[in-house]
Amino acid sequence: HYLTQFDHSKGQIQKMEESLETFKALDPVAYLSKFTASNTRPDSRPHHTARQTTLLPSILTRNSNGSSLITLGHTQIITGITLQVGTPSPSTPSQGEMDVRVTFPPLCSNQYNTSGRMIHNDYNNGSKSAAAMSYADPQSIESYVKRTVISSHIVDLEQLCIVPGKAAWKIVISCMVVNHDGNVVDGMILGISMALGDLILPPVQVEKKTGKVRLLSISPVEDSDSNNDHVEPESNGSGKSSGKGKKLVFRKMMVPLTVGFFQGKMLVDPSLEEESLCEGMVTVVVDAMSLTTKEPHAQSQTQPQTDAKAPILMGDVLNLSKSGGVMSSMEEIAACVQLALGRAQELKPLLLLPHHAGKE
To answer: ∠156-158-163 over CA atoms, to 5°?
Structure first.
């Protein structure tokens, strides 16, 4: 009797799930509206809550100088850093360079082809808003992420100088989307912050006669019979030197937060299905190293006593980007900034792990 009742209940649940999937396929906007009207979302999150986030450094130990794996819910992004030695620009002879490249393989989502470009058809793009299209286009994402990283001045590029005017490091940052379930922009910027913290510049020697740069082994052996044809440039004091190389000193630490606007509701860290339906998107990148708290104004003795207010979180905004045709008020933008500062306070201890790991 109990087995029969269990099978009956299981069948009802299965039919209910099938009807929900049919409802979502036929009218995705109404489907999402049913949840947001009840102050929740299809994955049971409140509107202002991000997905579970995992940050792992040093996952590519063979072919990269720094790496990370970022997980935002089901979105997964691998970031790897490789180094090249080149001649610095004549306008900045004592600085190196940074470059960012992103890859969207077809395995991450069915909306990309083998060349990493979007497949434009009614199946993939029919129900997407203009904001969602810009947040799914690989070229737009690469341009935005690269512009944000370089304009934020998170590291002093003079730390990448080997010999002024002759040799400098070029940092090539490669982000590959393993699984695309929305909000890849936040995942890439977090991955870059984590991978740069994991980066170690190897020690080098420069030949006096030819000017060639030679990479040293992890533990270089000094040869007492050397004829001193090689010289190792002295550190400029801006980085931490050790037998294993030099870690960069950070001026700032990027922490992003993307908020989607759907029917007047603000959805933090939207999933792929939410992202495709949002009328507008706002991404705020803040500096986690600049976070401070400000106590609210004290109440005068003549004013009635009320509940104590929480300290106000403050910090520097490195970049703010908005897409989509929906209008956003100053109050909504300020709310996005406050949510981003809270996100930075939450993730700052995790982003500092590679920095502490590099200390002796």
So the answer is: 165
> Do residues 146 and 188 touch, judged by C-beta distance below 8 A?
no
Contact 190, 347 (CB under 8 A): yes
**Amino acid in position 150:** I
Task: For 122-163, write each residue's pLDDT tens digit.
Answer: 555 556 777 888 888 899 999 999 999 999 999 999 999 988
Question: Which region among 11-15, 176-180, 292-296 has the lowest average model confidence (pLDDT)?
Answer: 11-15
CB atoms under 10 Å from CB of 360, counted, come to 6
Give CA separation, 185 vs 39, 113, 176, 233, 235, in Å: 25, 19, 12, 38, 35
Provide the β-strand partners of residue 204.
215
Instruction: Residue 70: count other Cβ atoms within 10 Å of its Cβ.
Output: 26
Reading the block at residue 78, the tokens are: 């691998």
CB half-sphere exposure, 165, CA atoms < 13 A: 0
What residue type is assigned to position 97 of the chain?
A: E
Q: Rounded to whole angstroms, how far apart are CA atoms 204 and 169? A: 11
Q: Which range among 65-69, 130-134, 173-177, 186-190 shows the weakest confidence by mean pLDDT?
A: 130-134
In the chain, the N- to C-terminal Cα span, in Å, equals 67
C-alpha torsion sign, points 140, 141, 145, 146? negative
SS3 207: strand
Residues 6+ positions from 158 with CB-CB distance below 8 Å: 94, 95, 96, 236, 238
CB burial of 28-56 (b: ≥16 within 10 Å; e: otherwise) equals eeebbeebbeeeebeeebebbebbebebb
b/e burial code for range 195-221 (CB count within 10 A of at least 16 → b): bbbbbbbebbbbeeeeeebeeeeeeee
